[in-house]
Amino acid sequence: MKIILASKSGVRKKILDKFKIESKVIPSNVDEDEVKNSLLAEGAGPLSISKNLAEIKSIKVSSHNPNQLVLGADSVISLNNQLINKPNSREEAFEILKRLNNSKHYLISSVCISKNGAMVWNYSDTSELKMKNFKEKELINYLDKIKTETLLAYGVYQVEAEGLKLFEYIKGDINSIMGLPIKDIINYINQYK
Q1: Burial 3-29 (b: 16+ CB within 10 A, else e)
Q2: Residue 176, Cβ neighbours under 10 Å: how many?
Q3: Comparing C-alpha atoms, which of 146, 149, 147, 150 is closest to residue 166?
Q4: Where are the domains of the chain?
Q5: Higher-confidence position of 173 and 164
Q6: What is this structure's pTM?
Q7: What number does CATH give the domain 2-192?
Q8: Is 74 a catalytic residue?
């Protein structure tokens, strides 16, 4: 079965490829910051924001691609039930790492599958992560190893690369933390066939 991935995330595409799910990439180009700010103004928490963004992305692309299954996805970090956004600069990335330093936080990955402009399935998975206690110099050294475009696109840690060293523990599915709860997506697709 072929699906459309409403995301330009190279990591999500790699996960689909690894699990032999044929996919075509059509980015949704949703203004995520605008949606987040609107939802935050309404008092939405991180889980709700993640779910809404996945759904909006999926439905937007689905409405222009009739009779196709479209997968939208979004991942957010929740620290003390507060949303941590992707950094817009290296300085912001450093501030985020300082906030997460020596702290337990949650990474929420939400997915939504739509067809003909309507959601047909959605799922959210929450992973618990605890960052080790680092000195500021160590955080700077970590950030120096990551390209700026990677940092801005994927956030402050990439568990598939250098970021794995940041954590004291990770409780959750690694694919979900990287952006797609793939086992649940496969279960849905197999039922759909």
Answers
A1: bbbbbebebbbebbeeeebebeebebe
A2: 24
A3: 146
A4: 2-192
A5: 173
A6: 0.91
A7: 3.90.950.10
A8: yes
